[in-house]
Amino acid sequence: MRRTSLLLVFGFILTFTQAQVDTGAEEETGGEDDHVELFTTPTTKMGAATSDFGYNLFRALASREAATNVFLAPLSVSAALTQLSMGGSEQAERQLHRALRYHTLQDPQLHRTLKDLLASVKTAGKGLSLAARLCLTRRIRLKQEFFDLVEQQYGVRPKTLQGGAKDMKEVNDWVSQETSNNVQRFLAKPLPRNSFIHTVSAAHFTGKWTTRFGTDDQMMNFQLDGGTPVRVPMMQQVNYPMKLGVDSDLGCTIAQISMQDDVSMFVFLPNDVTSNLTLMEDSLTAEFVQDLSMTLLPAQVTLTLPKMKFSYSTDLQPLLGDLGLTDWLENPDLEKISSQVTKLSTVNHKVVMETVPEGNQYPSPSSTPGHLTYRVDRPFIYLIRDDPSGALLFIGRVVNPKDLRM
Ligand SMILES: *[C@@H]1O[C@H](CO)[C@@H](O)[C@H](O)[C@H]1NC(C)=O
C-alpha cells in the first residue's frame, strides 16, 4: 500500500502539521500482519472493488487519450459488465469478475450487494443517475432464461436489437428516460451491422455542494500546458470549509470538498502546469483514496473552481484488453446467452456532468479571508466518491475546460 504523507501548508509554511492518523502510524511500525482492513462490510468491499476497476479503466483511457479531457462513471460500466458476466461459462465469468475486481470480495451474494449499492448511490439527494443495460442482436439464437435471470437480479431486461434504424432511437430513448432526460443522444451513430453484444452505460451527475459559492461565472484564466491561458467561468468563495493536504511525492495538493448526502469531490492539483498527470493517475486506488479521506485536514480556504458543464462519450471496448481481458474478448464463452459464438462488440459509455454554485449552507461570515488559497486553474484530476460505501461515482481529467462541450 502506498504511504501517504501529507502536509498542510499555510501560506509560506507558517505552520505545518504532519497528518498521521492512528491507522497510518500502526502501519508504519507494524509489518504485514498489522495491516488494517479498511473495507470490512460487503458494501464497502463492493465499493472498493468497483472503484479499483474504475481506476484501472480510467488509467487505460487516460493513457490512450494522452493530454486530453477524459471522464468516466465507472459504476455504470461495472453494472453493465456484471450483467454480461451472468451469461458466461464458469471460467468466462471468473475472467470477467477478475477484471471487475470481484475476486477480492468472496461475496456469495455479489449480485445482491451490487444491486443494493447501485440503489443507494442513486438516491435523489446525491445528484447521480445511472443507466446500465445489455443489448443483444437477434442474429444469434438467444436464450430467454438469460433475459429472465438479468431482469430478476437487476430489474432491467436486456434489449433485443432488430438490426434496423429503430434500434438507435430505442436505445437513446431508454438512456434518456433512465437519466431524467439528462443524457441525450447516447449513440451518435447506429450500432455496427455485423455486431453481437453491446453494453450500454451512462451517467449524469449534478454537483450539489454542502457549502455554496458566492461568486459564480467570473471569467478567469486557466493555464494550459505549453499554450496561452484560456478564459473560463469560475466559481469562487472565501473561507470555504474543506479538507486539504500536500502530497510531496505526487507533487500535488489534494482537496476534499464536501457535497450533499455524503458525497465528496477529491481534487488532485499538480504544483506545476502540466498535462502529464501520470504520477497521480498511477497512484489512484480505493485504499489510497480511503486513506486520504482520513488524513486530509480541515481548513478554511479561498476556493476557486472551474464551473463545468459537459458531456463525454467513448467506446471503452478497446480498453478491456488493458484490464487483462484480451483472451476473454477473443472467446468470451457466453454460453448462457447463446450456444452460438458471440462477442462483445461495443462498450459505449456516455457521461454528463454539471457543477452549479448552489449549496445548502453559507460559509462562515468573516471580513478577513484566511491565508490559504486553492485555485484550480491548471490541468487537474478529480473524482466524485460516495463516502459511506467508498464507491467511485465519477472520475475525470480536465486538461482544457474550454474544450468541454454539452
Ligand atoms: C509523464 O510523466 C511520467 C512520470 O512523471 C514520465 O515517466 C513520462 O515519461 C511522462 N510522459 C510524457 C509523455 O511526457
From TrEMBL:
User: Per UniProt, what is one Pfam family of this protein?
Assistant: Serpin
Q: Which PROSITE patterns match?
A: SERPIN (PS00284)
* A GO CC term assigned to this protein in UniProt: extracellular space
Q: Which N-terminal stretch is annotated as signal sequence? A: 1-19
Record-level Gene Ontology MF annotations = serine-type endopeptidase inhibitor activity
Q: Where in the numbering of this chain does the Serpin domain appear?
A: 55-401
Q: Is Signal a UniProt keyword of this protein? A: yes
Keyword tags: Signal
What GO terms describe the biological role, i.e. biological process, of this protein? Answer: negative regulation of angiogenesis
Source domain of life is Eukaryota
Q: Which PANTHER family match?
A: PIGMENT EPITHELIUM-DERIVED FACTOR, SERINE PROTEASE INHIBITOR, SERPIN
By sequence similarity, the record places it as follows: Belongs to the serpin family.
Q: What is this protein called?
A: Serpin domain-containing protein
Q: Which organism is it from?
A: Cynoglossus semilaevis (Tongue sole)
Instruction: Provide the taxonomic classification.
Output: Eukaryota, Metazoa, Chordata, Craniata, Vertebrata
